[in-house]
Amino acid sequence: MKKTIQTISMMLVVMMLATSTAFAATAPTDIAGTKNEEAVKTLVEAGAITGDTDGQFHPEDNLTRAQACIIIVKTIDPLASLVNGTATQSASKNGFKDMAGYSWAAGYIGYAVEHGIVKGYPDGTFKPGTNVSTDEMLTMVLRAAGYTEDKIGANWPEDYISTAKEAGVLNNIDEDYPKNATKAMAAQMAFNQMKELKAMAPAATDDPQGTAEDKPDAIPSATGMTFATGSFDGNLTTFAGKSVSKGVKIYTYGTKTEYKDDMKFSDKADAYREDTLYKFKYAKTPAWYLVEDGKITKMILPRDTGFTGNVYCVINGTVTESNVNEEAVTGFETLTATKTVTWFGKKSLTVPNFTEGDGQLYELKTSDGEVKNVATTEGAKGKVFKELTTDKSWTAVTNYSDNVITTANGLISVKQNASIYVWDDKKGEYKSGTLSGIKKDREVRAYDCSDDDVTEADVVIVKE
């Protein structure tokens, strides 16, 4: 997207694989001298595993299906929002009926299921507390690394064992391995495919944002579409009670007053924009939509509709665009809930002075998707918006362990579903990050912006 103004400027404790008591992210002493020492130490440093309350790893203990999912997903290291959602948007539900008591693992299991790493059982259960077998563990690692049945073969576990040997998954694993995987074996398998697993982390996409630069290649056809007025749910998975595809194409056109079941669409491409679904959270709006295989795959929405409420974001730049009334307005290129979203301001909106790379989080007050006010923690309209880094500037991390940042001024608890943004000084912009980006000697700014009566960081901005 072309910028018309200078670019400006980002719990899971792995349950200790047995418990929820905190343990410092240092190598457990009982893996020293073992053949899996390098694997365990590497995964500890990466934040994929940790030790027990006694400071040990207990490498020969078995692990559960829930813990196996955690190790694999934490090794992949996807955006935290894809695993646990954010303070304003929940992660996808996995739907298993036996997850009571496993809320700490639910997001990781959901991610693993959604990405074909593991499956549930025909009776609707997942059996999260059941020990994972060695053959199941190597199968999960293969699937997570991108191996599909057409590459492996249909015979389980024989074809999977053979492929695992060829791919190096079983390097440093005894030939006569036990029926159930041990914690050391699980760490070794993940370590053996660490490069491949990390390559599977979904990349942050720069979706079309509704500016003049985002005109569709062709005029979207309304053929086969249905007209209705409805609302999007909070997770943007349904509209008017119908399921919305994750890959839904969003086009905006015209105003709400034009929308009716016999409306005529323009034949000029300039009248349309491609846009991002996230801007329409909770929005009630008329729409035209196409349903394919039971899900909405394409929508045409009015340009004067969208989310109403407070948006908390980092700002990467501004653009100038014409609104639906052909008035010149300022748009803000943001990362909102880790998604790339451009929000447009009202006519003559006062635009604050931005300082590039200062780690500042902003509150955008929106109505029908239009920004009415831009503020920092000073002058914010939301009930809760405060900075937890007390100097209100970049603050050095002296330690980060178990979702707690230690600074010279005290401790900051970080939510498991916190949005993480990283300031990339070379590119001069923010990018979405992961919890593993919070490290000793890096600088951060942390913010609480959710009204949940808990003082924890919903957003952490990291300076690389």
UniProtKB/TrEMBL annotation:
Keyword Cell inner membrane included in the entry's annotation: no
Domain SLH residue range list: 23-86, 92-155
One Pfam family linked to the record: SLH
InterPro entries (UniProt xref): Cell_Envelope_Struct_Comp, SLH_dom
Entry coiled-coil feature ranges: none
Key words, A-Z: Repeat, Signal
Keyword set includes Secreted: no
Signal peptide bounds: 1-24
Protein name: S-layer homology domain-containing protein
Origin species: Aminipila luticellarii
